């Protein structure tokens, strides 16, 4: 017997989420069907509220309920240093490091020649625009340590250095092939302290 059509539709949608395979999508679909109606309402409502209230910060492209986001709006931060990350989740991970007082820039991905993701597919032009408009003296490249993140860091460093801006890359401590998002606070803190000029 095939799955009922309504559940089939749910599975098809849920399996498109990152990290969710067909088996997990089926499990989640059957779980949601068994949930009390009030809980299902809360789930739907939380997704819709998040979609409606999230804004993209026009300075750093962080997701936030306000524009500028709280980090960019914080006048006590060092406006001359920006930490470039791939995703808003990476920004959250780095922001847990208390001794980093600079600002951020969210690229919205990483270069990937194999997947045909080029500079125009991420926010390279916007980053250069920010470098020109703000007095940035140092750019810390905190892209992931996998091959895409490394390619992106090398590309950006070559592009940025001619502007007379110091370009650094996070130092030792981060596992090779790792995602910044999942690194712990102490590791990121050490990696920032040990950053090397590119
Ligand atoms: Zn911002």
UniProtKB/TrEMBL annotation:
<dbReference type="InterPro" id="IPR000093">
    <property type="entry name" value="DNA_Rcmb_RecR"/>
</dbReference>
<dbReference type="InterPro" id="IPR006171">
    <property type="entry name" value="TOPRIM_dom"/>
</dbReference>
<keyword id="KW-0479">Metal-binding</keyword>
<keyword id="KW-0233">DNA recombination</keyword>
<dbReference type="InterPro" id="IPR023627">
    <property type="entry name" value="Rcmb_RecR"/>
</dbReference>
<dbReference type="GO" id="GO:0006310">
    <property type="term" value="P:DNA recombination"/>
</dbReference>
<dbReference type="GO" id="GO:0008270">
    <property type="term" value="F:zinc ion binding"/>
</dbReference>
<protein>
    <recommendedName>
        <fullName>Recombination protein RecR</fullName>
    </recommendedName>
</protein>
<dbReference type="Pfam" id="PF02132">
    <property type="entry name" value="RecR_ZnF"/>
</dbReference>
<feature type="domain" description="Toprim">
    <location>
        <begin position="80"/>
        <end position="175"/>
    </location>
</feature>
<keyword id="KW-0862">Zinc</keyword>
<dbReference type="Pfam" id="PF21176">
    <property type="entry name" value="RecR_HhH"/>
</dbReference>
<feature type="zinc finger region" description="C4-type">
    <location>
        <begin position="57"/>
        <end position="72"/>
    </location>
</feature>
<keyword id="KW-0227">DNA damage</keyword>
<keyword id="KW-0234">DNA repair</keyword>
<dbReference type="InterPro" id="IPR034137">
    <property type="entry name" value="TOPRIM_RecR"/>
</dbReference>
<keyword id="KW-0863">Zinc-finger</keyword>
<comment type="function">
    <text>May play a role in DNA repair. It seems to be involved in an RecBC-independent recombinational process of DNA repair. It may act with RecF and RecO.</text>
</comment>
<dbReference type="Pfam" id="PF13662">
    <property type="entry name" value="Toprim_4"/>
</dbReference>
<comment type="similarity">
    <text>Belongs to the RecR family.</text>
</comment>
<dbReference type="InterPro" id="IPR015967">
    <property type="entry name" value="Rcmb_RecR_Znf"/>
</dbReference>
<dbReference type="Pfam" id="PF21175">
    <property type="entry name" value="RecR_C"/>
</dbReference>
<dbReference type="GO" id="GO:0006281">
    <property type="term" value="P:DNA repair"/>
</dbReference>
<dbReference type="GO" id="GO:0003677">
    <property type="term" value="F:DNA binding"/>
</dbReference>
């Amino acid at each position: 017997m095939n799955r009922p059509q309504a559940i089939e539709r749910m599975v098809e949608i849920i399996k498109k989420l990152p990290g969710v395979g067909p088996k997990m999508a089926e499990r989640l679909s059957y779980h949601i069907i068994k949930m009390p109606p009030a809980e299902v309402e809360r789930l739907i409502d939380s997704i819709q509220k998040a979609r409606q209230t999230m804004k993209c910060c026009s300075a750093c492209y962080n997701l936030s309920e306000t524009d500028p986001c709280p980090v960019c709006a914080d006048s006590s931060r060092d406006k001359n240093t920006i930490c470039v990350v791939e995703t808003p989740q990476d920004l959250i991970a780095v922001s847990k490091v208390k001794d980093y007082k600079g600002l951020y820039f969210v690229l919205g991905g990483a270069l990937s020649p194999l997947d045909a993701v080029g500079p125009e597919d991420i926010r390279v032009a916007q980053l250069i625009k920010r470098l020109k408009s703000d007095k940035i003296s140092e750019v810390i490249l905190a892209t992931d340590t996998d091959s895409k993140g490394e390619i992106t860091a090398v590309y950006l460093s070559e592009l940025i250095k001619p502007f007379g801006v110091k370009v650094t890359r996070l130092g030792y401590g981060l596992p090779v092939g790792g995602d910044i998002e999942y690194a712990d606070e102490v590791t990121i803190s050490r990696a920032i302290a040990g950053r090397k000029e590119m």
